Automatic annotation (TrEMBL):
InterPro entries registered for this protein in UniProt: ALG1-like (IPR026051), Glyco_trans_1 (IPR001296)
Protein's organism: Anopheles coluzzii
Catalytic activity annotation: an N,N'-diacetylchitobiosyl-diphospho-di-trans,poly-cis-dolichol + GDP-alpha-D-mannose = a beta-D-Man-(1->4)-beta-D-GlcNAc-(1->4)-alpha-D-GlcNAc-diphospho-di-trans,poly-cis-dolichol + GDP + H(+)
Subcellular localization: Endoplasmic reticulum membrane
Protein name, as recorded: Beta-1,4-mannosyltransferase
Pathway: Protein modification; protein glycosylation
GO molecular-function terms, A-Z: chitobiosyldiphosphodolichol beta-mannosyltransferase activity
Pfam families: Glycos_transf_1
Length: 440
């Protein structure tokens, strides 16, 4: 049991959906397991991790979302900022005085401003976790606008005045210091324990369960032979209880996204168009391909309509929403991952790749400046610049699938590097890197 006399108060702020903020949830979980009582402030549009909901050391404070109003964009942004600032301030005043506030950035406005002012009066420490830059994300939609300039000023002014900080790459650490004289500790994302390789039994059970709602996991016809009692598109279960991968199974390609402008899924669709043409030309060498894209967000319906207009015969693309416990299992059951996250700053890394590596899944990732801090081309995955390169990588991986002897050595080498990556998990890395900063 935790000695209550040693427990210290901490506050973690996410001015977004905490259920879709995995890194901040992992912070909260780790703090709660290391003698901190945590007030976790944010929006609760998706359920947080069960370990957080069940922890006696965590209190979740739900912020009220800004009401939908028919206003010009600039007015809506101003009123929303005031609404968020007041809601956050009222919540902070109501909680126990924390030793520190850990605030996610982005968004900087108004979270960092309110957190800094509160810490000034409460004599608490402000620690910023830099995932990216707010101004660089705003720049995607409104380059050279007033709001971009304001965001840059806010990040530079308050960032330099925070007591401490974390960031997600060495490139960002260097940039923060040279750009704004901000010192930050690099805390790489690492996979938590649930992102790991799984048994063929677990894969079969997952395919059966997902097959109830997603047709791509169901087999079009029962596998031949009275010996088989259960069958999916990828696996068969025999009367003696043995489960086997089907020799004639499709390739399983997976990606996840929040369907925002910083991920261009037309690149993947163009690559799949090319795969379709090659597979139809050489059906003896290329398997059918099932592509699963998980997640939800503003551009999902746009891409769903594009996919629905395709008349693919060798490719099937589905966009299911998965339960929290099924997502890691899907990654561990797939053959290849795709990441289209293009960093707005060129300085952050996609957590989805960390999760895929944690499950032993090699990844094709789009190139940007610091992606080589995570994806090593030819070692644990592949890096591509455009849809032709992605198509070539997918085609090479699935050529004569699943038993291409010529690729066996390369795939074994990649698995060796992924196994090494899997040895360092979030908990151990956090204790080594982050806990000393919080304990100061």
């Amino acid at each position: 049991m935790t000695d209550k006399s040693k427990v210290q108060n901490a506050c973690v702020i996410v001015l977004g959906d905490i259920g879709r903020s995995p890194r901040m949830q992992y912070h909260v979980k780790s703090l709660s397991e290391n003698d901190f009582s945590v007030d976790f402030i944010g929006y609760v549009q998706s359920p947080p991790l069960e370990e957080i909901r069940a922890s006696p050391n965590v209190r979740i404070h739900e912020l009220n979302p800004f009401p939908e109003l028919e206003l010009p964009n600039i007015l809506k942004y101003i009123f929303k900022t005031i609404w968020q600032a007041l809601g956050l301030l009222i919540t902070l005043i109501s909680i126990r005085k924390p030793k520190f506030i850990l605030c996610q950035n982005p968004p900087a406005i108004p979270a960092i401003i309110v957190a800094y002012l509160y810490c000034l009066f409460a004599r608490s420490k402000l620690i910023i976790d830099w995932h990216n830059y707010t101004y660089s994300i705003l720049e995607l939609e409104a380059p050279d606008s007033l709001i971009v300039r304001v965001a840059k000023k806010v990040e530079s002014f308050f960032g330099a005045r925070a007591a401490d900080g974390f960031c997600v790459t060495k490139a960002m650490k260097d940039d923060l210091y040279t750009r704004w004289n901000v010192r930050a500790t690099v805390l790489y994302d690492r996979p938590p324990q649930q992102f790991q390789s799984i048994s063929i039994q677990d894969k079969h059970n997952l395919f059966l369960r997902l097959g109830e709602s997603v047709s791509a996991f169901r087999t079009a016809q029962d596998a031949a032979g009275e010996d088989i009692v259960e069958c999916t598109a990828f696996t068969t279960k025999h009367r003696n209880g043995e489960i086997k991968l089907r020799d004639s199974r499709p390739g399983l390609l997976v990606s996840s996204t929040s369907w925002t402008p910083d991920e261009d899924f037309s690149i993947l669709l163009s690559a799949l168009d090319q795969y379709e043409r090659e597979a139809l030309a050489m059906p003896a060498h290329y398997p059918n391909l099932v592509c699963i894209i998980t997640g939800k967000g503003p551009l999902k319906e746009k891409y769903r309509k594009i996919v629905d207009s395709k008349s693919w015969k060798m490719v099937k693309l589905e966009m299911p929403w998965l339960e929290n416990e099924d997502y890691p299992k899907l990654l561990a059951s797939s053959d290849l991952g795709v990441c289209l996250h293009y960093s707005s700053s060129g300085l952050d890394l996609p957590m989805k790749v960390v999760d895929m590596f944690g499950c032993g899944l090699p990844v094709c990732a789009i190139h940007f400046d610091c992606i080589n801090e995570l994806v090593k081309h030819g070692e644990n995955g592949f890096v591509f610049q455009h849809h032709q390169e992605l198509s070539e990588q997918i085609g090479r991986w699935f050529y004569d699938f699943p038993s291409n002897i010529a690729l066996a050595n390369m795939k074994q080498d990649i698995q060796k590097h992924l196994k090494k990556f899997q040895t360092l998990r979030w908990t151990e890395n956090w204790r080594n890197v982050a806990l000393p900063v919080f304990k100061k």
